[in-house]
Amino acid sequence: MHKRITIRNERTIVTALVLLLLSGIASIGRADDSGDGADEVEPLRILTSTNDLAAIARAVCAEQAEIEVVLRRNRDPHSVEVRPSTMRKAAGADYYLAVGLSLDLWAEDIVRGSRNRKLVMIDCSRAITPQGVPEEKVDASMGDVHPEGNPHYWLDPENGALVADFLAKVFGETRPAQADAFRENARRFGETIARRVVDWEACLRGRSFVEYHDTWLYLANRFDMRIAGRVEPLPGISPTARQLATLSGTIRSDEVRVVVRDPFHSESPVEFLERETGVRDIVIPSVCEEGRPEAYLATFDRMCAALESADSR
Ligand SMILES: [Zn+2]
């Protein structure tokens, strides 16, 4: 009787030891993951204006973030109809990533309307050097000109890398335990971009095209491309018949093969140019279609493929 109890006790002790050992391993594992505080394992909740910013934030955070995007696929980033569901997302977010340079002024309404006092708005244009800053004072007669410069800066892939480094720093400050991982992810993203820039450069350098809106300045400057003309005489303003006729003349004399526009731009002026000159209407979303790093990089692949095939006809 006594002996049986002893045996049972020995088993109990062994079981207890095993359990103790396992829980020890488990708690060591937890300590490693969580770093300074228990709440640090919570993913960052990020709301962004565009898919491009979501893609870059994803490259930086990997699985450490829940990321939502305001602008729907193939919509014009200059103006957005803010829905109640967007406000709900903003109410639960830690960060709002804005493009800045007056492109997404609507983002301020979202942040204000969310009544989320913890929501931190990050103006991602702080990471880059603006181009196309108007020299004269901006007024309404100049169309939709942005006084701080052209806001389509994510279309230089190297600006994508700068935004990634900037976000790694910002996120690392609130999540010190993950700061190294964010920095390393951003570095790797930058490396991928640097590698692919070699191909994009080989393909894009020296090519010319007509754009619909003042969209592709940063890409053109990065790769020494020539924007031969623009369908919109001023940003956001539709062309007159006479302006289109002048542009047709330029397309013919400069032997331009391609007009690049976004899916949300009107087809009819480009159809006119096509009829008049044989130029090709190429639709390339300048705001990428998904918040994945690869989708961001695919914009430049598309531009390459479109211009290369048009020029080799
Ligand atoms: Zn614009």
Write a structural description:
With 313 residues, the chain is α/β, with parallel strands linked by helices. It has 2 domains: 39-129 and 142-194, Rossmann fold, CATH 3.40.50.1980; 200-311, Nitrogenase molybdenum iron protein domain (Rossmann fold). It is 49% helix and 11% strand. It has 10 helices and 8 strands. It has helices at 2-34, 51-61, 84-91, 106-113, 157-174, 179-204, 217-222, 241-253, 268-277, 293-311, and strands at residues 44-48, 65-69, 95-98, 120-123, 208-211, 226-230, 258-261, 280-283. The strands form 2 sheets. It has a 4-stranded parallel beta sheet with strand order 2-1-3-4, with helices on one face. Strand 7 (258-261), helix 9 (268-277) and strand 8 form a beta-alpha-beta unit. Helix 2 crosses helix 6 (179-204), helix 2 (51-61) packs across helix 10 and helix 5 packs antiparallel against helix 6 (179-204). It is globular and about 60 Å long. It starts with a helix and ends with a helix. Mean pLDDT is 88; it is low at 1-39. Residues 78, 151-152, 213-214, 235 line the site of zinc ion.
